[in-house]
Write a structure and sequence with these properties.
The complex is a heterodimer of chains A (515) and B (198). Chain A is an alpha/beta fold and 515 residues long. Chain A is built from 19 helices and eight strands. The N terminus of chain A is likely disordered. Chain B has two helices and eight strands, in the order H-H-E-E-E-E-E-E-E-E. Classes of the chains: A alpha/beta (515), B alpha+beta (198). At the A-B interface, helix 1, helix 2, helix 7, helix 11 and helix 12 of A face helix 1 and helix 2 of B.
Chain lengths: 515, 198
Amino acid sequence: MPSVNKPVEAGQRDLFPAALAVFLTIYLLQTCFVGYFLIDWRHLNSIIFFFGFELIFIGIAFDITESLFALFARPHRTPSLSSLDHYPPVALLMTVCDDCNPARWPALIQNYPNYCVYILDDSQDPHERKLVDRSGYPVVRRSNRLAFKAGNLNHWLKHYGHLYEYFVVLDSDSLIAPDFIQQVVRFAEHPANRSIAIFQSYIHPVDARTIFSRVLGSMAKIRFYIFDRFANRTGLVLSWGHNQLLRMKAIREAGGYCESITPEDTSLSLALSEIGYSIRLVDVTSYDTDPPDILSFLRRITRWAGQTAEVFSQPWRGASLRLKLLLSHHLYTYTIHNVYLGLLIYTAWGFDSRGISPLKLIEFLGSHMQVLWIWTLVLAELSILWLLQLLLRFHLGRLAGISTRDFFEHMLLATALHSFAGLSMDLAVLRAIFGKRMDFVPTNTKITLLKERPAHLTKDIVFWLAASGLILSGMSLRNPLLFFGLNGLWIFFWVASPLTLLLFHRDRFGPGRVI
Amino acid sequence: MKFFSRLSLQGMLIFILAALLLPALALGTLGYFDASAQEDNLAQVRLQVNQINQLINQSVSSPFYLSPRVFEPCDPATLDQINLPANWQIKYQTPHSGRAACEWVYLVDGARTAADGWSDYDRKLTNRIYYQSDGSVLATDEFFTLDESGQLVCVKQRRYETLNVDECYSEAGELISIDPRDNLFSPLPPMLYWFSYR
């Protein structure tokens, strides 16, 4: 009889209803406060702003809710066995697609007594195929690359799936400890976890060889700190597609991976939820790499954005309400930059502050205080909101063990990346909305297509130049007051984004080094 | 709950947006009707003030209008030469503050209707105050208002006391600006990407 660990937090409450209530409260309070005080319903400018604000408030309310729960809730502890009395057969699958990483192969040796390793190779490059053949592990290939990773995994499931009770999916850059299978099977074998189909490990970044990669991955600790206390406690967890153990019975019941859309991880999460299975982030650590530069980052974020939009092409009736909400939030995060940019351009051109210097503005406010005090109230409220979000995140970062320098460096990089990558994300989302399937290119592929060389950034640079020009000309010709205050800061980060990105690529310049 | 789980993913997205924007829409509709009511109210008060203004301009006349004689409104004797309807009366008084040297208070059937303030510098009309029947101030016109640097801001600036609204009129009598908030842009909410951790 296997020994059973009691969960550390026995009888932990489901926090989803509470989180929903907090989210709605924050959102409605913001709506009423700004709607009542700031908006002048006689002015079109004001009304346009209100609806723009409403869209942004959704994200702010989610963000603050997430931070508050991360601050006050206890982490979720999934029950696990302290030891195993039998060892169900486990397959360890590493998916490869022109991105093989021989340095990771030694880590496939596990101290679990009943496992087999397979390399599922979708590579097209003959050199890559030869390299994979030298791995010493069984290599499974198919005659085509239909349905990308989902097709690759289904091909294996069809031929070998019946031999195993569980399988672990790794990407080519995944790194796991020798006891990874041992640890994660203890969770899967616990009788209380029968309805959990996927046991997702914490994935920390490793091998950060560039400044860009190091800074990008520096927030992993806060990510898991929040996930453990918010997503895991509210059931808002989707499969991340790798570094995870999957229950074969559940995957077979779900009919394997969905091949009609490219995000095989998300579609599997939804399909599993339709038949009553869930996904859980468990306290097992694994590693992978973050993109080393802006090109890899763009490849990854546009793929994520497009894949998220692609999921919406299917109805998913009967799937979990929570996962649907989470996906709606994901799509929101990939598109909300348009509202900011739209409002900035509108602010630059829609308001006329010519001839009003900051000093004059203060005098102006003073002389019209009986009319304008509410404007200053909202200004103060939004400034406090900025500060609250910043302090909450900063405090959570400290609790998760993130240094002040890492926190602010990441903030700077994230802002530049999301400002600069806006058009690429939009195009990916639009393509998916209009029914074009994503071309699945792994983040770390070694095949650098011509279109993915630095020239690929041309459209982003042109877009950045056009948008910056539009904002700056509006600020110069119509609304010079925008140079001051919080909006000015926003614009500064937006306009400076290419320079910021160059700063984070400073180690890539030099003899023989090209981005 | 069953309704939500049967809802398609697209339907869910539309439902969330609709549900979250519904309070904004409700607030917007209420705000719009409230603003329309205020606009109607302002239009009504503006009409009332314009009628009083027109009545004074039509009813009060003087024989020295367009004559080369220097007009001295702050000499009480000047009032004797002003022509008025029978039920009108002008009361001369000296204000305690402001840039007016003297004031003419117009009484119609004994009720205070308006008051003109005459400049202490060039004896031009500097302001006109309009009163309601209960004696409270309805609106005030300030003529040739200047800013701190001496620049002309408005040929006529009207303030509606009860509505807390300012209007600025050009020399041609056109309304050129109503609200100082026209000049103000809105502060944007916090950037979400600042706190992204992926």
